[in-house]
Write a structure and sequence with these properties.
Layout: E1 2-6, H1 13-24, E2 27-30, H2 31-39, H3 43-50, H4 52-66, E3 74-77, H5 86-95, E4 97-102, H6 105-112, H7 126-144, E5 147-150, H8 156-169
Parallel strand pairs: 1-3, 1-4, 2-3, 4-5
Helix pairs in contact: 1-8, 2-4, 3-4, 6-7
This protein binds shikimate-3-phosphate.
Shikimate-3-phosphate binds next to loops.
């Protein structure tokens, strides 16, 4: 079983993914971290040296591999642009349970104002860039997602609880034992 997290950069895919994995006893992998390990350099440097298309080719390969992970339950955080290629969307949607962590551009801007690592945001007006990315990608995240969770107000722990409840309702996870459940229920 693979559960994938998609959404714009800074929306908490890795943070939420790591906590979710801990809670349900799954392995956690970040597709960007797997990729960085393979190329032996930060994504930002790779972008600068080889360009975005080359990066997307490698990303496609990693998504193809990780969506077929069969070595126990896996929570996979994806890079924000993983949904851009139709083949990735197909692999994510058909092979995994996809959760879209939806955040507004303003919220992301507050979190990413000082970021220096994300190549797409190293521009004069990062808020305008985030708005553009949202307009372009929100429909793609919605298309690929089995569930959408708004990251606006809740804490990470609450988001994780919301995701776990949703997965339980859909029968993707066995119901967690509830000590306070009435005996007659
Ligand atoms: C990208 C997002 C990054 C990383 C790369 C490209 C994007 O991942 O894959 O810099 O196109 O939005 P995060 O979403 O983890 O920042």
């Amino acid at each position: 079983m693979v559960i994938s997290l998609v959404g714009l950069p800074g929306g908490g895919k890795s943070t939420v993914g790591r906590q979710l994995a801990k809670r349900i006893g799954a392995r956690f992998l970040d597709s960007d971290a797997v990729l960085e390990e393979r190329i032996g350099m930060p994504i930002r440097s790779y972008f600068e040296q080889f360009g975005e298309t080359s990066f997307r080719d490698l990303e496609q390969r990693v998504i193809d591999e990780l969506t077929q992970y069969a070595d126990g339950p896996l929570i996979m955080a994806t890079g924000g642009g993983a949904v851009l290629r139709p083949v990735n969307r197909e692999h994510l949607r058909d092979r995994t349970t996809v959760i879209y962590l939806r955040s507004s551009p303003d919220e992301l801007f507050r979190r990413l104002r000082h970021d220096t690592q994300r190549p797409l945001l190293q521009v004069a007006d990062p808020l305008a860039k985030l708005r553009e990315l949202y307009d372009q990608r929100h429909p793609l995240y919605e298309e690929v997602a089995h569930y959408t969770v708004d990251t606006g107000r809740p804490t990470v722990a609450t988001l994780v609880n919301m995701i776990i409840m949703q997965l339980e309702v859909e029968g993707k996870l066995p119901p967690s034992p509830m000590a306070d459940r009435p005996a007659s229920a």
